[in-house]
Amino acid sequence: MEKQNKTKMSSILRIFFLILGASTCSQSLASDHAPRTDEYPCDVTSDYVRGGKYVDCAARGLTSLEPNWFPETATTLSLDHNMLHNLVSGCFIHLSELQVLTISDSQVTTIHEDALRGLGKLKELNLENNKIYTSRLPSTIFSHIPYLENLYLKGNTWENEGTLEYPFSSSVPFSDLSHLTRLSIDEASEIIYFGQPFSKLKNLTYLYVYCPHYVVKGSNRSFEGLRNVALRELVLGGTGQEGHFETGILANVQNLDILRIHHVAIGNQNIMKCLWPFENKRMVLIDISHVFLRHHRATPTGTCNDGLMTKESLKHLSNICLSQLIWDNSKVVGIEPMALSAKPNLRRCLRSLQFTRNLMGEMDPWRSFYLELIRFESIEEIQYAGYEWCGPGYDFKFRNDHNVRKSGYETIHSFNTKSTSTAQTHALPHYSNSKNGNEREKLTTPSENSSSYETPSIRIPRESERTRFVLRFPKHLQSFIIVGFSGYFELSAWHIRDAQNVKEIRFVSCHWIEWSGPVSGLENVTLLDFTRSHVTSRPNFVPLQHFPNLETLVLNAMRESDFIDQLLKESWLQKTSRLQHIDLRDNHLHKLPRYVFSSNLIMNAVRLSGNRLTSLGFDLSPTPSLSVLDLRKNVISSLDLAARTALDTHAQRKPDFSLLLEGNPVYCMCSRIPFLVWLHTTWVRLDMSGNYSCIDDRGQDRWTADLVTTKALWRRCVGKMALLVSLCLALSLIVGFLAVYMWRRFRTAVGAFFLNILAPGFK
Ligand SMILES: *[C@@H]1O[C@H](CO)[C@@H](O)[C@H](O)[C@H]1NC(C)=O
Ligand SMILES: *[C@@H]1O[C@H](CO)[C@@H](O)[C@H](O)[C@H]1NC(C)=O
Ligand SMILES: *[C@@H]1O[C@H](CO)[C@@H](O)[C@H](O)[C@H]1NC(C)=O
Ligand SMILES: *[C@@H]1O[C@H](CO)[C@@H](O)[C@H](O)[C@H]1NC(C)=O
Ligand SMILES: *[C@@H]1O[C@H](CO)[C@@H](O)[C@H](O)[C@H]1NC(C)=O
């Protein structure tokens, strides 16, 4: 009885709140926008992370909210990409379980001070990219959500306060949120300033500062309020505007693990000078991108001076025990030899170096940079990419090779070793075949009198000179990635030492690699990638012979077809019996040799899309574990009986086998009926569920999976045949009857007639 009362009571209460909420919500909005008529515009699913309901109202075109759209058990509510304008009071009052509320990109301008009432358990609030004057928000708003941990406010409107000398803004509306750990916010004025109010945010570990003004200035006092805050990650992001930092700017945040500076044109030299507080400290990541000088400071000399990194400019950076350095798109024109590795701290700690899209590729492709790599004792990953040779927006995360896009790079630079004089061969003086086994010591001597602007050259003795070239890799190196190298590079008769950990080697969009001699010492490499590179080899030499552990070979959109032609003709793949994935997409291949994969027993995926293949072409029987065969965008109009049988047989052995055929010019014609029927009946898993567009004999577009099409076609084709056959049968029957009748009726006359013909004169 009591229980019943209780539930009744709570439901009454709930209804009361709903009505209250609804009336306030629609009341205050009625003047602005009519509420949507849709009853429940949101999707409600399980929130697997937080245990309640996930309510998704993103991009529904909402202009107002109704409380009854959101179930009480909601733990996550997304209202991103709507047109809400005002957040009025009472809309979320019943959502006492809600932990995450995101309202980004929703044109919100005002938030009622009771709007967040009831959200006592809220941990994350995202209001990014609206039109809120964040510094004018009343602090009562945040008093309703005292346990908030993540608050994202950047991309909102700032007050136009001009260039205040020191904007001692005392009011920070969320300074009482003692649990706050992550914060993103716009800088309210041109001078970055985080003062006293922020000192209360003791648990703040992540701070994203977005600078929307025309100028960015950083002073020694910029982060004075964060001196006793446990900040670990600081991100400074802008819109590419000019700026300048005083060199003591980071002194108050010297316990950072991660520092990121993006799209702020303060220049490389300025940033390098600010890094002194981290000297002799351990850091995880420094990530610098798009910091080159702009506007009037970006004169050719200005850019050049800013991009030339000397020992002096790198003295702070090289003295940090840093694990990962990303230096991207910042017009670094040269690094003084041995400057990056000058001090033991960076040399000892650096594990990953991503030096991408700077200007060094043009001027100094190898010398100062590559010679130094050996000196980094812990380095595991090196990514080096030339300047925007891969087109803008290139994705440098190579984990997924589908990310690799087409190159826009056309220019040809070629530095031919054959024409280089011996005077220039000091480029790689240390990688010699010296017998004293003392290469390491020698490597520490910087190349003398070399300037970063000399013509780059690499001279590697060719086999005719009977020298076996010994190259040493850093001991822990696992992955070596070069993108957009524009010179000539000859790989011949090399032995690589200390490469036992190297697993991944990629030369992407590189201009000319001549692979003319055996490279040994890389036996543990599992992935080789020459996407969009120009690679040549010489006849009867098998480059892959020393790669017995190769699992993935990516030869996608190669600039010259010779390398692949040779690979197929000369059966290079017989040397790589562990191969599991091969990518030969976009190579104009017409045909594959029948036994191309006969030695690759564990082959798993064969990618051949974007070629000119007309049929399956190769034997499937030696590759019992093949699970993906990608033949998309070829010119296959149908598969013949042998291919279909082979595929069916394979699918019986390997039930999860998939065949991808989309984008082929399939014909829905009488002669292709067996193939179309096969598409409907096979056990092979097909992409598009076997529904491909095809052209029928009347030139109409059809879909192969449409039973109606196939049936009609069948009827038409098979029907024609049947008609012909029955006509023939009927005709012969009639003739037969006629003959018998004639015989019966005119037996004697006919007999006499034939006798007459056969034996004239016989009577
Ligand atoms: C701050 O962080 C520490 C350690 O993570 C935690 O024990 C403490 O409760 C946090 N303080 C607040 C107010 O959240
Ligand atoms: C800022 O700090 C740096 C390093 O401590 C110091 O050299 C510089 O003079 C300071 N600048 C100003 C304007 O105080
Ligand atoms: C470097 O160049 C200077 C001037 O050109 C010359 O005097 C000096 O001997 C050179 N040093 C070496 C090691 O070649
Ligand atoms: C390959 O790796 C194994 C195990 O790590 C190691 O013993 C072997 O020496 C490596 N081979 C080469 C050629 O580096
Ligand atoms: C095949 O795809 C087309 C276009 O997407 C679609 O209109 C058609 O209904 C599909 N047929 C079947 C049977 O799924």
TrEMBL record:
SUPFAM superfamilies: L domain-like. The chain crosses the membrane at residues 721-743. The keyword Transmembrane applies. Residues 420-458 are annotated as: Disordered. Residues 420-436, 444-455 have a biased composition (Polar residues). It comes from the Eukaryota. It is found in: Membrane. Keywords: Glycoprotein, Leucine-rich repeat, Membrane, Repeat, Signal, Transmembrane, Transmembrane helix. The keyword Membrane applies. Residues 1-30 form the signal peptide. InterPro entries: Leu-rich_rpt (IPR001611), Leu-rich_rpt_typical-subtyp (IPR003591), LRR_dom_sf (IPR032675). PANTHER family: PROTEIN TOLL-RELATED, TOLL-LIKE RECEPTOR. This is Uncharacterized protein LOC101847594. It comes from Aplysia californica (California sea hare).
